[in-house]
Amino acid sequence: MEYGRKVRLLLRDGRSFEGTFIPSPNEDTIILKLNNGYNIGFQKDHIKDIIPLEEKVEVAKFPRRKPIYREGLKGVSIIVTGGTIMSRVDYRTGGVHMFLDPYELLYEIPELEDIAVINNILNPFSIASEDITPKEWVKIAEIVAKELNSGSDGVIIPHGTDTMHYTSAALSFMLRDLGKPVALVGAQRSSDRGSSDAFMNMICATIYATSNIAEVSVVMHGYISDEFCYAHRGTRVRKMHTERRDAFQSINDLPLAKIYPSGKIEIVNKNYRRRNDGEVLLDTKIYEKVALVKVYPGSDPEIIDFFVDKGYKGIVIEGTGFGHAPTETLHREKSWFPHIERAVEEGIIVCMTSQTIFGRTNSFVYSNARRLYNLGVIHCEDMLPEVAYVKLMWVLGHTENYEEVKNLMLTPLAGEIKPRSLEEEFINSGLKEKYY
Amino acid sequence: MEYGRKVRLLLRDGRSFEGTFIPSPNEDTIILKLNNGYNIGFQKDHIKDIIPLEEKVEVAKFPRRKPIYREGLKGVSIIVTGGTIMSRVDYRTGGVHMFLDPYELLYEIPELEDIAVINNILNPFSIASEDITPKEWVKIAEIVAKELNSGSDGVIIPHGTDTMHYTSAALSFMLRDLGKPVALVGAQRSSDRGSSDAFMNMICATIYATSNIAEVSVVMHGYISDEFCYAHRGTRVRKMHTERRDAFQSINDLPLAKIYPSGKIEIVNKNYRRRNDGEVLLDTKIYEKVALVKVYPGSDPEIIDFFVDKGYKGIVIEGTGFGHAPTETLHREKSWFPHIERAVEEGIIVCMTSQTIFGRTNSFVYSNARRLYNLGVIHCEDMLPEVAYVKLMWVLGHTENYEEVKNLMLTPLAGEIKPRSLEEEFINSGLKEKYY
Fold first, then answer.
1. B118 and B48: one domain?
2. Amino acid A61: pLDDT
3. I need a surface site. Which of A232, B20, B169, B361 has the fewest CB within 10 A?
4. Is A89 touching B (CB cutoff 8 A)?
5. How far apart (Å, rounded) are the C-alpha atoms in residues B44 and B306?
């Protein structure tokens, strides 16, 4: 079936869907772009029939230009994965609509070619970021490595914002010996809106991709104004607001740099990898059966058994405060201790982080934490819970030996953990006092 | 057995423990204060024998004074529940040690009696806050109501900081028609340390308890300095750092007031309940089988079935971004949609919040959220995930009718939800731009 063809798809369970047939990253799956602009995947063995509806739709509604080569500019590749930055409102339906052709991006923001030569625009899939899974992380990492090792000076990855910080952490671990900048970039408002951040974020991401900072970063608005973007280290960033353009914030680390749309880059954090000519080493081995679990008052500790019984090999706990779980509660059925004990005894790696988000675990101040530490729980210092989750998946892809896992978890592989924190790494940084 | 008696406790499973016998909130349980200063509870039917070890220990090692009555001062009650604020390092063992007698607090901070008459100091239990469960919330609420309805002008609740914001939310819903201030207060550093916040926080909490703000608040350091505390609304606050003294931050709302240890109160947020003479109505009906579940890339949606199969009636999801869950992922086994659909079909209430913490859910912008909304998922607007969890427990204690639950969840009962957000309610409030 030809891509771009409108079809009606009949499922074995009786349901039917109409949409445009688009490329799938997966041989067992067929993807339709529905009329509301969203994509939906179908397993081939659930499909009864596919009926072509009309002539092939012309997807390129704009003149696709050849790249412009300007003397002295670096060459970058763009890997389009979906999200608001690749969308605009379809005024016929009112729904959000994704670009059908990734080159539409260059048509929307021709200024990109004043900053870099756009070597390549690739589009392995176009999905909302809440639908991204570790399999897509691997796919993206593979393409990034291929582009960098075949001559691109940097990579830009337009991505949905919801889980962009999980993807940035995953790429940080999968791209070993990185010698070039990799920018994940998104938009909180689609490009047809007057207040869209898509334009400035793409400009700043492209500037970042030509810089000397050889790190995976999230490049997004720095403040509510359109003055500058921050490049946040990929393992130290979190989406902290549902809708603000400055939703992404560095956590327990300073942003790497301030990037002005004029082209100026101000280094904020001198602790970063410099650009070099080495090849990036692609290492995408991950073990997927890892869970992230939050404790809270009244929480059911049998959730640990649920994962143990399903064959999970790693569990990251979002504990309270310094990294605590209920262990001496007055109500025995609410104590997590025996369940964590069982998991550890069965060889499952249990890591502890804090749901306070900011700060550092400490397993020595209070007896609850000491008891968990003595069991073999690995306290992940100042690592974000989400990053510890991604990292444990990657580490378990390489070894299941407890001592090796512990050693790797507590060794910085991509700036995700460090021994000392700075005063200005908290929310209130730069504030003498809030004005209220 | 007499409280204060040192005992050796033999369990049926062969283990034994030594400690001091202290009051238990629960008839089926016996509590020992271990030699490291921590409490541990034992179910009576697991105990084989209790052997008295020596003469009763004298717990009051300081002169217990009678309350001082000063003309014109308001009268407050203190309900001690445990935590760092009631602890100091035992220099013999190096461990953290909880006060054995709650009146030790007055000995440590006699200045409290310059601010208010201390009517009563009660100590239903002394536990680290990670061990607090909804049963303890009920116990605290009962005592608060009794104290307020028998003449106290305000209540102060020293509490561990880890889960203080969950308790403050629970009390906010359980204390209906509140006409007096209720201050939860903690310390990030124990009172024997030079940088302890215990002293100033207790002073400010006592000032708050004599104020005209009839709300449950968390009173903690406002900034890194010792200049002032904030009173954060009990349903709008979260511990955001593992160890900083200004770890507690108002989320999606302004703090209610700034409180200076000199006694000055500056109202920050005019939207608060005023002190009145009415009786507080105690309403502690909760349904405990409610879960808080986070989605993330690769997350296992069968976690929903785990709770449904265990008879849970409510599930609060910490979604991504505007309140999304994986619904159209390329890997069918990772889609949460069919599992949420099943839960809703079986009559379980499913609520959606955002793991961004700041901001507001929106079920209309993207199709993934619209699909969940159409199923009957309740999007909790600007309510914190932790607060939605506590509230859903309280709401399900009163009705299981879907329309009634939805209506109550989306109606402000204690300032936990509001229709419009303010610019200055985000992290960056008061900042033109961070200094870095």
1. no
2. 53
3. B20
4. no
5. 30
pLDDT, tens only, A379-429 = 999 999 999 999 999 999 999 999 999 999 999 999 999 999 888 888 765
Residues of chain A with pLDDT under 70: 1-3, 25, 36-37, 54-67, 88-98, 100, 428-436
Q: Do B324 and A436 touch (CB under 8 A)?
A: no
> Does residue B134 sit within a domain?
yes
Residue B301 pLDDT > 70, yes or no? yes
Min distance A231 CA to chain B CA atoms (Å): 12
Q: How many domains does chain B have?
A: 3
Collect all residues of chain B within an 8 Å Cβ-Cβ radius of residue A432: 223
> Same structural domain for residues B207 and B307?
no
Indicate if B42 and B111 belong to the same structural domain.
no
With 0-12 / 13-18 / 19 or more C-beta atoms within 10 angstroms meaning exposed / middle / buried, residue B225 is exposed
User: Which residues in A lie closer than 8 A to residue B95 (C-beta atoms)?
Assistant: 367
Task: Check whether residue B27 and residue B157 sit in a common domain.
Answer: no
Q: d(Cα A425, Cα B374) in Å, to the nearest integer? A: 41
The interface predicted TM-score of the complex, written ipTM, equals: 0.86
Are A251 and A387 found together in one domain? no
B20: CB partners within 8 A, 6+ apart: B4, B5, B6, B7, B32, B33, B57, B100
B152, B268: one domain: yes
pLDDT at B190 (0 to 100): 80
Burial of A423 (0-12, 13-18, 19+ CB in 10 A): exposed
The model's pTM: 0.86
Taking the C-alpha atoms of residue B14 and residue B16, their distance in angstroms, rounded to an integer, is 7
Closest CB to B130: pick one of A163, A240, A324.
A324
At A29, which CATH number?
2.30.30.520
Residue-number span of the structural domain to which B23 is assigned: 6-52
Q: What is the mean pLDDT of residues B101-113?
A: 84
pLDDT at B37: 63
**For residue B167, is it within any domain?**
yes
